[in-house]
Structure formats: C-alpha cells, structure tokens
C-alpha cells in the first residue's frame, strides 16, 4: 500500500486555506518525516511561504511554486526584525494571498508564534495555528534519549538559554533544585555560563549531559559528556547551532538503547 493510499484511508480532510488568511505552522525539527499532515497540506495550498532559517530545503520543496520569503531567525545570525516579519504577513494577507508562516519546531515553543498570532488578531487578519513537533521531543527521541523514563524523572523542564548572563536570564539555580532533566533551546553559545550556574544551584557536575546538533537531519551529531565537561567537549567537537542541550539522568539511557 502506498503512502497516498494510507492517507486516503485516514479520511483526512484539512480545512480550506482561504485567501487573506495566515496559517502559523511548525515544520518540526528538520527531517521531512516530522511534518504533520496539516502542515503538508498547507504547503501544497499556500500562495506564499514566509519561512525561518531552520526550515530545511526538503520541507520547502513541498510548497511547489509558492512565493518564498526568507525571515532569518537563527540565533547568533543576522535576522529579519520581528516587526518586519509581522508587517509582511499582514501585507500579504491583505493582498488576498494564502500565507503560510513556517517555523522550525512548533510555532508556540520558543518560536514567537504567540507574538505573531497576537499581531494578526489585532490587525483583524484571520489565522490558524498548525502545531509542529518540537525539537525537545523529536530531537531527543531521534538521539535515543527518552524525554521521560520511569525511575529517572517525573517531569522535564524546557528552557531557553538565549538570555543567559543578561537581566532577562532564568533562575538556573531554581531549575537545578527541581532535580528534573532540563532541555535547553538556543543555549550553545551560553553553555559556559549555564553549566556553572546549574552546578552552583546544586546540580552535580557529573550529571549526564549531551548536546545534539542538527537534530533529526543527516547532519545530526551528538556529544555526550557531563554537565561539568559538556561545554569543553562541544567546543572541541566543533558543535555549532542549531543545537539542543540535554542535562539529566535521561541522557544515560542513550548508551543502553543503542546497545
């Protein structure tokens, strides 16, 4: 049975993508296999796609002849200003286009999707949100690290490391005291600040830790170390963004699951 036959058997009926509407969609962590049916359908119907840097060419290919607008949005790289992105979404919608705003991961998970949805609502632009697989879950699964494991954790903390060392920084000591695994988005550059802050908060320096570069894609690389050594190990390996940082006992499962 083909994939088309399998989809037909689902009786999948996506809602109509109407002119003048904006759909905020998550493309998942990178691999085209992580796309949802809703997002794939939207790619096929969109007149234009406003996409982030983390969206792969393989995913964009599904958009066919739709107009493409690059919106940057990668940590540490030149990016389009958020206000400019929002203005473009509104302008394209007012031209009667079916506008797909395509983001890596999930729009509402550190993707500023909430800000864009609010701006569209205030401008009177009809919109819909299409969830995507966030890299903290899909990326860990692909790297053989279960996000939760009986006997190891009862929760998992998702955090952003983008603001580490600034006035908007998280209370890393408080997160350390939870004793639960922490998955850090956009934190590679600030890992030398984050790791000591967690240790100072009471998390043992020998806590298992890993960094996952280009999760789920053919370029994926995984470095496993400890909280105390991860920053140096990642630098030695030449790990670059986009990368996820995982800290906690769940990391120790990788070796067992990979045999």
What does this structure look like?
This protein has two domains: 3-133, Tetrapyrrole methylase, N-terminal domain (Cobalt-precorrin-4 Transmethylase, domain 1); 136-258, Tetrapyrrole methylase, C-terminal domain (Methyltransferase, Cobalt-precorrin-4 Transmethylase, Domain 2). By secondary structure, the protein is an alpha/beta fold. The longest helix has 13 residues, at 82-94. It has ten helices and ten strands. The protein has a five-stranded parallel β-sheet, with helices on both faces. The chain has a five-stranded mixed β-sheet with strand order 6-7-10-8-9, with helices on both faces.
Total beta strand runs: 10
Which word captures the global form? Answer: globular
Order of helices and strands: HEHEHEHEHEHEHEHEEHEH
Number of domains: 2
Instruction: Give the DSSP E fraction (strand runs of 2 or more residues).
Output: 15-25%
Question: How many DSSP H or I helices?
Answer: 10
Helical proportion?
25-40%
What's the CATH architecture name of the largest domain? Answer: 3-Layer(aba) Sandwich
CATH fold descriptor of the largest domain: Cobalt-precorrin-4 Transmethylase, domain 1
| Main sheet overview | 5 strands, parallel
Low-pLDDT segments, ≥5 res: none
- Going by CATH, the homologous superfamily of the largest domain would be Tetrapyrrole methylase, N-terminal domain
pLDDT averaged over residues: 94
Walk across the major sheet and give the strand order. 3-2-4-1-5
What is the gyration radius calculated from CA atoms?
A: 20 Å
For the record, the CATH class of the largest domain is: Alpha Beta
Distance between the termini: 33 Å
